[in-house]
Amino acid sequence: MFALPTQRLVILASAFGLFLAADSVLAYKQFQDAFVEMYLDEHPDADFVKMCRKKAKCNICHQGKKKHNNNPYGEAFVGKLTKKDRKDEEKIVQALLDVGGLKANPDDENSPTYAELIASSKLPAGDLDSVKQEPENDEHDAKGK
User: Fold this and answer.
1) Using CA atoms, how far apart are residues 110 and 97, in angstroms rounded to an integer?
2) pLDDT tens digit string along 6-20?
3) From CA 89, how far away is CA 34, in angstroms rounded?
4) What is the residue range of the signal peptide feature (predicted)?
5) Cβ atoms within 10 A of the Cβ of 113, count?
């Protein structure tokens, strides 16, 4: 007799979890591998490459420790890549090219693009300390409470 309400609760909780994840780009190895190949494999600054690979890692696109928090560079991928695109190399590369061509500060016509920042040995969303810092307002945590 109690199975039906429990099943409904599980279904509602699952649907809510999908809702929370729907607006973020998830972290998949294939996305990171394509970024590394495009921007780091032939980058002339070995120290920058090492910092990206060893220290920045997921924080190139994500803010803080939780992968559902995107930094501004990661936000630019929202709607461009989904879980289904993990094996679509062309779509991943195209998304990297599209986002790379965007101004890091869209309100400043003189702002460098994300690709230009990376080429000049800068993380696309700010310095290492700022991208590793937890966001002040974690919307996903607020929605879950």
Assistant:
1) 19
2) 454 344 344 334 333
3) 8
4) 1-27
5) 15
